[in-house]
Amino acid sequence: MFYVNDYVSPVGKILLYTSENGLKGLYFYNQKYFPSIALLQAKNYENEIIYNTKKYLDNYFTGKNTTHNIPLEIDGTEFQKLIWAMLLKIPYGKTTTYYNIAKEVAKIRGLKSAPFQAVGSAIGRNKISILIPCHRVLGKDNSLKGYVAGLQVKKYLLDLEKIESIKD
Hints:
By secondary structure, the chain is of the alpha+beta class. The protein folds into two domains: 2-60; 78-160, Winged helix-like DNA-binding domain superfamily/Winged helix DNA-binding domain (Arc Repressor Mutant, subunit A), CATH 1.10.10. 35% of the residues lie in helices and 15% in strands. It is built from six helices and five strands. It has helices spanning 37-40, 48-60, 78-88, 98-109, 116-124, 151-160, and strands spanning 2-9, 12-19, 23-28, 96-97, 137-138. The chain has a three-stranded antiparallel β-sheet with strand order 1-2-3, covered by helices on one side. A two-stranded parallel sheet has the order 4-5.
């Protein structure tokens, strides 16, 4: 059984999608790689995970309580899961770069060169925005680069977290 429900954020409507075990998706309605129409046609139910996610988002969007204990049910390839695990280590109010993540992946995997495109693709396929903080990843020169919900949303989230070292 799965559950879907909407959350209205300051930057647009968000679709929350869970199983009984964890949050499977947090999608901005206008984002690239939005889930299938079948998911949208599911009945809207609110389980405890959706309730707690909404509570977390309420706090997040007001700059409060930046930690969570929401169980995540992460679906993806082994490589995507590696990248997303790295994103989970980026603290609130901090950033890293695609370059740094790619270098770390090369090191972990014993590669001679960093898989920049693969890293960017995996980050872009993140199904649980905000909680898996892909918005905290910047270009090598700390510039805003790619975000599935648009650069305006990424900038809003970074501003909310009071991250100032961004080049537009």
